[in-house]
């Protein structure tokens, strides 16, 4: 897998999390009964987003046309891909 492909996956996940963050922040003002839940979820999403931005910065510093395996182990790449899929599939902005 090329570094560019990993970078694209990270960018897609960041976009999903930004949508989820805005949705949860907005929903925090809908009713006082659920505002705490949405506020807490927004904080969790922001933490995940901050971590992904750090990963993106690290990947951006690498040559996008090289194989990611030159920089990271096979297991690390698989774990990152699994994490990105989980974050994308969570669809935090839907409920």
Describe the fold and architecture.
Helices cover 71% and strands 0% of the residues. The chain is mainly alpha-helical. The protein has one domain. It is elongated and about 50 Å long.
Low-confidence stretches: none
Average pLDDT across residues? 90
Order of secondary-structure elements: HHH
| Computed structural class | mainly alpha
Given the structure, what is the number of helices?
3
Report a brief summary of the structure.
The chain has 95 residues and is mainly α. The protein contains three helices and no strands. Helix content is 71%, strand content 0%.
Which helices and strands appear, and what pairs or packs with what?
Layout (H helix, E strand, L loop, with lengths): L2 H25 L7 H26 L13 H16 L6
Helix pairs in contact: 1-2, 1-3
Keywords summarizing the entry:
elongated, 95 residues, 71% helix, mainly alpha
């Amino acid at each position: 897998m090329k570094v560019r492909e990993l970078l694209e996956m990270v960018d897609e996940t960041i976009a999903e999390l930004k949508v989820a963050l805005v949705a949860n922040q907005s929903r925090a003002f809908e009713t006082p009964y659920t505002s705490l839940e949405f506020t807490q979820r927004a904080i969790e999403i922001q933490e995940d987003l901050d971590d992904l931005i750090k990963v993106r910065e690290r990947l951006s510093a690498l040559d996008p046309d090289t194989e990611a395996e030159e920089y990271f182990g096979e297991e690390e790449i698989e774990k990152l891909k699994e994490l990105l899929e989980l974050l994308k599939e969570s669809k935090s902005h839907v409920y």
